[in-house]
Amino acid sequence: MDGASAALSEKESPLLPSQPEHQNEENPATSQEMAASVLKTSSLSVRKKLLQQTGFPLYSTSHGFHEEDVKKKLQQFTGGSVDLRKEDCGIGILTFNNPSKKNAFSGVMMLQLLERVIELENWKEGKGLIVCGAKNTFCSGSDLNAVKGLGTSQDGVQLCMFMQNTLTRFMRLPLISVALIQGRAMGGGAELTTACDFRVMTPSSEIRFVHKEMGIIPSWGGAARLIEIIGSRQTLKVLGGALKLDSTVALKIGIADEILQSSDEDQSLEEAQRWLQQFISGPPEVIRALKTVVSSGKELALEEALETERDVLSTLWGGPANLEAIARKMKFNK
Asked: Where in this protein does the record put region Disordered (predicted)?
């Protein structure tokens, strides 16, 4: 679980009920056991809620985050769109569409990204998701007009919390996701790739975390997620050197999972769909459950992850997909 989630767990865990002093003196072991039990239960419930409850944010007003105020500011910076197409096969295609600025994120696009994530949270037939950019380039980060217009430290922190909320919800979607990196993924665009489960790259594409050269650090959760993907030492090299990671280097250090054969926009999208299909064949409820338990195992402590596994299993065992598979297996064994 990330630092923000841990902090939230500590903030939201209820205080232990106060006990009279004579009770503690008479039976200290019982008092300690009760305290441990309450802390354990509250910690479990908060952490599991963070992961399992659809739309549960990392940040709220208790953290000084005021979402509606942020939205009003972001609406001022127009341009581009975030488009979502849902295929009958259960694959969604999420496209960053602002080609005149190399698909840089305007304020409106940041708002639309949240809207698309909410839409995907409610897409029960979905199994997989491809994230890409229009006109054969991925995303060049934030539109400089928005960056200049949100110039104070407070603005930066509010935007950080807004995008961390959005991308954490994205990461927890019960869909197996892959970033299709065509052209360049720069700055915030590079961070966006880390919110996906996988990354596939065209031969001529490039990932680069340029934040250091802009006098800042990754603030959309990219550093924390990159450490999970390639480890802390490699992350320091990538961020500290603002390294240009072509597809070969990215595959070697573990950021990329596959180098596609084509650099053509349409052909590479078809390749990415075929690549993703191998992981999402099967009933939607099973694929979505698999993603949920993997997310739990990544973010939660072992005991909590095991409890999530148990809870998710209860929705599948004896269900239609399970019974059909058993019947099919029995038929094959005759």
From this structure: 1-35
Residue 181, φ and ψ in degrees, nearest 5: -100, 105
Q: What is the DSSP string of 164-206?
A: HHHHHHHHTSSSEEEEEE-SEEETHHHHHHHTSSEEEE-TT-E
Which CATH number applies to 57-281? Answer: 3.90.226.10
* Structure tokens, 102: 């190399």
Cα–Cα distance, 210 to 131 (Å, whole number):
21
Structure tokens given for 79: 């341009």
Entry pTM: 0.83
How does DSSP classify residue 139? Answer: B
* Sequence-ordered strand ranges (E) for the chain: 81-86, 91-97, 128-133, 176-181, 184-186, 198-201, 206-208, 245-246, 258-259
Domain boundaries, the chain: 57-281, 282-333
CA trace torsion 270, 274, 280, 283 (10° rounding): 80
Give the type of residue at 138. F
* pLDDT tens, residue by residue, 18-66: 333 334 444 444 444 443 443 344 445 555 555 555 667 788 888 989 9
CA end-to-end span of the chain, whole Å? 47
Is the CA virtual torsion 159, 82, 191, 51 positive or negative?
A: positive
Please tell me whether residue 26 adopts helix, strand or coil conformation: helix
The tokens for 90 are: 């259960």
pLDDT for 85-121, tens place per residue? 999 999 999 999 999 999 999 999 999 999 999 999 9
Specify the DSSP element, H or E, that contains 54.
Answer: none
The closest of 66, 81, 53 to 159, measured between CA atoms, is 66
Number of other residues whose CB lies within 10 A of the CB of residue 193: 26
